[in-house]
Amino acid sequence: MPARIIDGNALSAKLRGELATKAAALTAQGTQPCLAVILVGGDPASAVYVRNKVAGCEKAGIKSLKFEYPQDAAPADVLGKIAELNADPSVHGILVQLPLPKHFDEKAVLEAIKVEKDVDGFHAENVGRLSQGQEAFIPCTPNGVMEMLKSIEAPLRGAEAVVIGRSNIVGKPMAMLLTAAGATVTVCHSGTRDLNFHTRRADILVAAIGKPKFVTGDMVKPGAIVIDVGINRLQDGPDAGKLCGDVDFDSAKEVAGAITPVPGGVGPMTITMLLVNTVVSAERALAKSRG
Ligand code: NAD
Fold first, then answer.
1. Protein residue whose Cα sits closest to atom 5 of ligand 1
2. pLDDT in tens, 209-251
3. Is 120 a catalytic residue?
4. Which of 22, 53, 213, 253 is catalytic?
5. 166 CA → ligand 1 middle, Å
6. Can you list the domains of the chain with their CATH numbers?
7. Residue 22 annotated to the active site
8. CA of 31 to the centre of ligand 1 (A)
9. Residue with the nearest Cα to atom 19 of ligand 1?
10. Which among 52, 140, 209 is the best mutation to test ligand 1's pocket, defined by most ligand atoms within 8 Å of the CB?
11. pLDDT of res. 243
């Protein structure tokens, strides 16, 4: 039986509706949630991501500010803007679109963002807090995956979870969240010796690799929940130019119990969780201002 499709668009629409209500309530109290987005350079994919984030804000009643810098921008100028936004009480979230040009120290830029406004959850303090189970802004993509698992009532406690990929923005925080939820987590990466051995015993398989259709049906345990984080643009063949995930959807859906599509899976959830974090930040700011 083909797998149940976990529809990221439908779940996003539901969550964004709830968010719009919260944003309107905050605005009525004089605190409209506000996200500031910084884009450096002309990477076309980054420009699309930023456009989608700004559009998502508008629809949810969240104010957005966009600051664009050329490819050869001076890091000091961007750091100066971050300092200005950190000090502005009307700004609740600050996001620097990655990747940054090579002459930037990415870590220094991310660490410059005030922890309370780090709605991407990339600041080392937020990562540390997450690892210790303290209140933190959780990186949006893995947080969106957890919402998707929740939406299908996936049994996580005691489950064997395998995450392919160990990046700071997806793989590592994903592993932390699944561990916190009670799963037994294995993190696979480019140095893993026998990848199929691990994937075939996964009740929950998360692919965050960046290689089109890398995970095939024969790598999936029958009945598993397969979450495809990958976003790749096909280069050749009849589907050239189309988006696809890290999972070969056609073969995997015949084996899996549930699976996320690309597009329309994790992608929309990532932006939704960014909006959630921005609204949460605004709620905290309002509560703080009232003492
Ligand atoms: P990354 O390049 O930082 O990390 C890729 C990981 O895959 C690495 O840890 C590497 O060890 C692992 N890997 C590479 N080849 C492998 C192999 N042969 N076997 C096992 N592991 C291997 O990428 P990332 O930033 O984590 O992104 C991963 C994918 O997710 C990309 O396609 C990216 O576009 C996508 N992404 C999607 C969203 C979203 O909103 N859906 C958000 C972020 C990233």
1. 209
2. 999 999 999 999 999 999 999 999 998 889 899 999 999 999 9
3. yes
4. 53
5. 8
6. 30-114 (3.40.50.10860), 140-267 (3.40.50.720)
7. no
8. 37
9. 190
10. 209
11. 93
Tokens of 30: 């004089």
235 an active-site residue?
Answer: no
Q: Is the pTM of this model over 0.90?
A: yes
Annotated catalytic residue within 63, 81, 97, 118: 97
